[in-house]
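User: For my dataset I need records formatted as: sequence, then structure tokens, nothing else. Please produce one.
Assistant:
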Amino acid sequence: MSKNEKSRGGAGAAALIILAAVLIIISAVVIFFFVRDSRSGNAGDGAEKSSGAVSDTGESVDDPEKTPGGTESGTLPGDSQSPTETTDEGISGTEPATSENSEKSDIYEGEIEQLISQMSLHEKVCQLFIVTPESLTGNAVSVATASGEMTKNCLEQYPVGGLIYFAQNLESMSQAQTMLSDAKNIRQELGMIPMFYGVDEEGGKVARCAETIGTTAFQSMYDYKDMGEDTAYSNAFTIASDVAGVGFNLDFAPVADTWSNPANTVIGKRAYSDDFEQTAELVASAVKGFRDGGVYCSLKHFPGHGDTAEDSHFGMATSYKTVAELEQNEYLAFKSGIEAGADMVMVGHMTMANVDGLPASVSSTMITDELRGKLGYDGVVVTDALGMGAVANMYGSADLAVRVLQAGGDILLMPADFYSAVQGVENAVAGGTLTEERIDESVRRILKLKAEKIGLE
């Protein structure tokens, strides 16, 4: 072999060695970046899941039965956890008081319309009433402490929207829980629309459960006025959790009146404050507490009962406030409570002497123009008890029920004569005084509210 041939052979071998080395290096680089990217991607996914799934307390947020601690979730240090009862008509877990609730109800719009189209007029009218168990039975029993065949028979004939219970109905925790559980079972057996089970549990002197069956007792809300918004939230959360544990899903609280007249006795220390702005702050926090605690809540008594000298339970109670004065003062707490997510607004029976001279509960000016129009509230409007002297002394049960609906109200609470009130509304539709479309309007609001938390099954 010549020297030139040997030189070319050596050069070729060297080239092959170099090429092989380059290929090895390229392969190593590719493998390195592949492994690095793969590991980096996995680590990123893990970090994202961790940041969304673990709270500061170490509890899983993704688990629907667990929520992080703190006031935003409705769990306060030292307080019992919010009830997670999932039985019929029970509100499962807690739900922050946000506009998401109303958005969620849009999902049920088709279901609601279909349900309304299938309901008879009688069923629609009954859905507008929340009554005592005694009234439901036509006072066949003086005091109801159980739910049995009589309750079943009456609900079958008059499928009301809800029942309200008082201290006389509550003997012990186990008795109260059984009574409510049996009522829910009867409702389910009859295939009725889920019901409200209501109670007045404000704290202080209006505390049906605390005074009878041992739920947490509080002083009057006024006594906490200088303890701040966190205390208002905590008190409401505890009250709500307690009554939800009994089986109630609706608390007619908080009081949004301001104790502006020292001579006023019907409200007095039931109010959160004697200062309008402070009342507004505390009531908003209380609304969030009630809702996070697991119950529907209701602001009361629109447009404000804290300035009257008389007690509307027994006769006419007059407010001399003008609309301009109400806007500057009384409306503040109702506005803040509505913005905080109040489920209902209860309209009182104060005669508005300098507005239209009518009790607010039958005034289209107060309900339709002011509450719905000026304050922008489109939720459920419930009356104060219709058996109270301020209106029962002026109107019969049938006439009063019709007037409330004409004014824009939705739920008719505790008429003096329940059967007469139902018949009166049905007669008004038959006679053209009310339209069935007007009844549908209120039923729609009620079903929308029920759909948000307790469903429509």
